[in-house]
């Protein structure tokens, strides 16, 4: 058997159709009408190419027809048709039109009419039909000259499909082969990982350089073909490169996509409305551990074997798995008056939990932000009483009942590490931190700057306290790092002795006059200096003012 072009066979078909129309009278039965309808379909169809995957676009409720012709060449020869729906379920069928037999033998007029009707209906027959969204392949065998009609229909909405016809089943396959067992096995499940394994495709052993496995991970459902997965991602409101196998190029990425290259594995993460859709191509490895998943979440996994040369693919049977629930965070007990220093990992974004059981009605929580950015959430007996981002030193005075249970949860709001000091105590407890001024900013006076000295000022309080001033010479490229990485909880003990300038006590009952100035001498001309002021209260725990960078004059 071989494929023949329509225009070669057109005279034969027209002649055949003409002779049929002359041999059959006006339709008197449904069979005759059905035959003429099918015959009409052949003349309004398109040729289906042999050995090539054809993309067909379908409009809702409008059938589309393609045909191909098989010429008698040998006794028996196979052919196959593979149809891949790329979205919604479709209906498709194969009809065959065989060459009509000879004229009916003379006889009774009624007998002749019945015989003609039976022969006409038997010339066009449906040999296959299917409805669904799975990839289906029909394998046929023909021993005579025949014309085949394929009819496709979408009743849900406009969609597209791919169709592959071949009459040469001996020289290889367009689609990569699936193993006898095409299931994906879930080997291990963790809180944020799932490990998968699958049987090797026979195509990998034969064409290792042009074949690779690609994995698709999503939170919605499994996909029965690669084009169905791509269509679903596009319908989510984002553009996707033509195929998974050929889309892994940085310049093809959309703004909603993130590409990750790690250990020769290329991943694309698509941010869509229904959650993340991850695409990972891992070469010919048949095991993979999916990282960075969310705890207690169900994920669907599909593996596709992709031919990089033809861009054709075959889908393994998809699977799904639910990651384990995140273990309850460890809760640390807060004791009256005791200070706890908490360091939070910004990359893991985990909550740090502290619990405190009140012995009095009034409770005083104190937070001193040391580094980074932190959000605090306080709940009393399961109900939220405070939630905000911390800045500097923050007090929460809460009123409840004895034996109330307070849960304090802390979380870093940036990727870098953050740290904070926490204290809980009855309201009348001796304060841990000193009384603070309205502002912790240090001011410098530009007009009082000289080549050898700088004058700074800061606010004090109504309580007599100790203030210590430190200076540090820095370079231009160190300013940002020094200001951003400064640990606001660290005291003078972390500073070099040579950086200490002076310590002094002062206060003023009138807050309007609670301001002090200091002129730091012995500096170098045209040089940048970082100045810090530490305030010490009755407990001896320091509070660090915001660092100030000042440059001495170059010429005087």
Automatic annotation (TrEMBL):
Residues 176-313, 434-542 form the Fibronectin type-III domain. One of its GO terms (cellular component) is extracellular region. Residues 1-23 form the signal peptide. This is Protein NDNF. Its main location: secreted. Keywords: Glycoprotein, Neurogenesis, Repeat, Secreted, Signal. Secretory protein that plays a role in various cellular processes. Acts as a chemorepellent acting on gonadotropin-releasing hormone (GnRH) expressing neurons regulating their migration to the hypothalamus. Also promotes neuron migration, growth and survival as well as neurite outgrowth and is involved in the development of the olfactory system. May also act through the regulation of growth factors activity and downstream signaling. Also regulates extracellular matrix assembly and cell adhesiveness. The keyword Secreted applies. One of its GO terms (molecular function) is heparin binding. One of its GO terms (biological process) is nervous system development. The keyword Secreted applies. It is found in: Secreted.
